[in-house]
Amino acid sequence: MPDPSVPQTRTPEAEQSAPEPGRGVSRRALLGTAGATGLVLGAAGGALGYAAAPAPATPLTSIGTDRAMFHGKHQPGITDALQAHGHLVAFDLKPGAGRKQAAALLRRWSVAAERLMAGEAAPHEDTDVARDAGPSSLTVTFGFGHSFFARTGLEKQRPAALDPLPDFSADHLDRKRGEGDLWVQIGANDALVAFHALRTLQKEAGDAARVRWQMNGFNRSPGTTAHAMTTRNLMGQIDGTRNPKPAEPDFDQRIFVPASGEPAWMANGSYAVVRRIRMLLDDWEKLARPAQEAVIGRRKSDGAPLSGGDETTPMDLEKADAQGEYVVPLNAHARITRPDQNGGAAMLRRPFSFHDGYDADGTPDAGLLFICWQADPLRGFVPVQRKLDRGDALSRYLRHEASGLFAVPGGAAKGEYVGQRLLES
């Protein structure tokens, strides 16, 4: 029997056979159909031409077949590589919906996420948006907001780490676009696959929950550079150089709640801080490149620290120029955010860029959907943001417009749904 995770060439008999009633057609069963029409796609999905005779079906590229696992110690979408397309969406439980309805919803969502991440059709009334696509590294991640626990009568299970974030001087927050009872992060390397997941989960919410806010983001597509590189943000800066790495011995300690942690249902989970950060690009782009580099503390071309070396070279904070001035300015963003300048505070940043059009005066509504993961936001995000508030040169070019904090439980074991240990405790 062929491996269902490997794209299979469809035969004429397969084209004529109908799916079993009620089961629909899996997306994986439809991979590699291009050749049946005599249309030939290049290996990279680029050149398009007509073949003189029917050609063998062309399988999806590795980008389409790459698959993340739904079940595991941690939820997907935390340590996975950045994807090209993302959606962030928060839901509020509808009036009258409580713990029972929330449990049923998380069960439905988990079933749907597992199927979609495997490249299969949605469990109910699939829209066919991603019918001929592969998994495309789809990840779906679920979290709980502060208000969820009161809505479900689970206040005693609410983690202390989920206390509301303090106010920061850079905040200009739209409360309608922040927080929420439930939070979902969707990422994929194909835009249709990502949208399909978003639409499926919104439909599966049914009478239990309604959308509170939703945001769309993007990153550079995999394979667009000759070798793997740290992504760039909309300011043109390499962004994420000093992210903690899973290979580092204290990575789990910094990013995930320990198995023995409290509350018990958060074991192997993490906390996500989500911020919509507007970049004031018109002001930023008026700066000459040397001035931009001084604001960041790194070269724009390759992300290397101004003290020398390449992107991964440790920053020499004591190095001075001929005039005795620090090469990396005291208020440079990269200096202020270093963990060794913040008592070891660390967070795993996994952002998306966004562009939502233009204001009436032509100002771009663009920036960063900032998402960071940590074992405790009071030891991760909060001390770093407070220090940035006190003197980060980059702050004058940013405006924090929305904010949320969510408790993201550990991954679901086979046969479980996400949040089951909380909702059935």
From TrEMBL:
EC code: 1.11.1.-
UniProt cross-references to InterPro entries, sorted A to Z: Dimeric_a/b-barrel, Dyp_perox_C, Dyp_perox_N, Dyp_peroxidase, EfeB/EfeN, TAT_signal
Pfam family, one: Dyp_perox_N
Keyword Transmembrane: no
GO terms, molecular function: ferrochelatase activity; heme binding; metal ion binding; peroxidase activity
Residue ranges annotated for the Dyp-type peroxidase N-terminal domain, each copy included: 75-219
Cofactors: heme b
Enzyme class, broadest EC rank: oxidoreductase
Biased composition annotated in UniProt, kind: Polar residues: 1-11
Keywords for this protein: Heme, Iron, Lyase, Metal-binding, Oxidoreductase, Peroxidase, Signal
Record region (Disordered): 1-25
Catalytic activity from the UniProt record: heme b + 2 H(+) = protoporphyrin IX + Fe(2+)
Keyword Heme: yes
Record GO biological process: iron import into cell
GO cellular component, as recorded: cell envelope; cytosol
Superkingdom per UniProt: Bacteria
Intracellular or extracellular location(s): Cell envelope
Dyp-type peroxidase C-terminal domain boundaries: 230-412
Free-text comment on the cofactor: Binds 1 heme b (iron(II)-protoporphyrin IX) group non-covalently per subunit.
Family: Belongs to the DyP-type peroxidase family.
PANTHER family in the record: DEFERROCHELATASE, DEFERROCHELATASE/PEROXIDASE
Record function comment: Involved in the recovery of exogenous heme iron. Extracts iron from heme while preserving the protoporphyrin ring intact.
Full protein name: Deferrochelatase
Gene that encodes it: efeB
